[in-house]
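Hi C.,

You asked whether I'd gotten around to modeling the 84-residue construct. I have! Everything is below, sequence then structure, no commentary in between.
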Amino acid sequence: MKSNDYIRVLNIDLTENRIEVQNREDLMPYLGGVGVATKLFSELVKPERDPLDPEQPIILANGPLSTIFPVVTKVVAMFRSPLR
């Protein structure tokens, strides 16, 4: 695996005013923005909490063929819906 074979993840915590960048090699096998967003969502969601709880994640992931944002890309927004 080359040194740049990773996916960069930007974590923004609005309640703590904290920003963190992670290089995640374990996300490489997941296909596209939907696959990466699904994996991150499964790691971060808190099913026992209300969907509108500030600790629930909103995942924004762009596709693998992204070139010029937002012209030539697809962005996925994944979150837990308050509708049941």
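If it helps when you're writing up: DSSP finds one helix and four strands in the chain.

Thanks,
B.
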